[in-house]
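Run log // design_07
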């Protein structure tokens, strides 16, 4: 599977995605500068969200909508109005995609209905992302997967049967290029609810690539996720934390995002590969290991004991595994204290 130039089979690195989301604060120039900052911060890709308030919900104030945001960071806002302040104007998309291309960033979006998919097709996106709250929208998943592009699906509110149905739906239209993202749909998400051990289980259970869509406040979860097999890390990105964006509370600014990228890349280096062969420098440092040394002068014919032969550092004498065989036998020559022991 490939997402633009990122080949999941040949590339051992992690695809790091900066999520623009609502962090443009309805300002076009801010959106463009955020894309440029994401590149400076080390992102491989930038992702948008493509919807309007009317494609994601309806303007209604009955009991089903009125108190929906109670207990969230958006409490006090009307549900419909939240999306009026958060959506990315569709007329911006051409320039956003173009700017991302200029910066060398992979660029794609999350469509929230079929009209958004149709609209996005003109930009030839390398993938589509299905958001957590849309994982049960099977008609949308079927329509999107049917375009033949890789599908990234967040699983934030999903039960196992929801994930299974979403994956089955993609495969049902002949699309096997699927990445499932572990996600905690809480904003911001408590680190103790990340449950990242789900990642290897998800990969095995659904036979797909896996990643993390992270809403925790720091950078620990992405680094741990990479160590557990995540091939994509998606994190909300904001130019400046002082921006009063709806998503600011769980977004990283350029400095923190850069720190996350460095930590992820260090984690990749640390993981390396299955290897028991010692590097040249480590092999050289075996000299600091233990071996048998003479710790007391020994005359010819004298018995070897634990008082005159001992495993100590460095590693210039016989292997300590021979100590039991040697103790109780007699010296065939004189030995001086401090010399490596050999028979």
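design_07 sequence
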């Amino acid at each position: 599977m490939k997402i633009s130039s990122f080949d999941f089979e040949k590339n051992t690195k992690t695809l790091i995605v900066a999520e623009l989301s609502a962090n443009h604060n309805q300002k076009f120039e801010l959106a463009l500068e955020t894309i440029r900052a994401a590149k400076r911060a080390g992102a491989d890709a930038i992702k948008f969200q493509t919807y309007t308030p009317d494609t994601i919900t309806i303007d209604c104030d009955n009991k089903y909508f009125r108190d929906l945001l109670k207990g969230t960071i958006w409490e006090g806002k009307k549900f419909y109005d939240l999306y009026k302040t958060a959506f990315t104007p569709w007329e911006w998309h051409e320039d956003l995609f173009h700017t991302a291309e200029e910066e060398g960033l992979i660029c794609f979006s999350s469509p929230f209905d079929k009209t958004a998919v149709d609209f996005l097709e003109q930009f030839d996106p390398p993938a589509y992302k299905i958001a957590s709250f849309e994982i049960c929208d099977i008609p949308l998943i079927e329509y999107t997967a049917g375009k033949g592009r890789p599908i990234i699906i967040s699983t934030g509110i999903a039960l196992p049967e929801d994930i299974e149905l979403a994956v089955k739906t993609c495969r049902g239209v002949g699309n096997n290029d699927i990445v499932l993202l572990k996600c905690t749909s809480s904003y911001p998400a408590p680190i103790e609810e990340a449950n990242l051990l789900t990642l290897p289980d998800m990969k095995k259970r659904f036979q797909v690539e896996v990643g993390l869509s992270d809403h925790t406040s720091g950078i620990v979860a992405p680094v741990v996720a990479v160590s557990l097999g995540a091939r994509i890390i998606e994190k909300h990105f904001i130019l400046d934390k002082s921006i009063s964006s709806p998503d600011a509370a769980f977004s990283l600014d350029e400095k923190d995002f850069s720190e996350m990228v460095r930590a992820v890349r260090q984690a990749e280096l640390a993981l390396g590969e299955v290897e028991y062969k010692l590097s040249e420098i480590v092999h050289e440092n075996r000299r600091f290991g233990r071996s048998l040394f003479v710790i007391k002068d020994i005359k010819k014919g004298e018995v070897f004991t634990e008082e005159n032969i001992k495993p100590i550092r460095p590693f210039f004498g016989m292997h300590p595994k021979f100590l039991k065989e040697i103790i109780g036998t007699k010296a065939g020559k004189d030995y001086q204290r401090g010399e490596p022991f050999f028979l």
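The mean pLDDT is 96.
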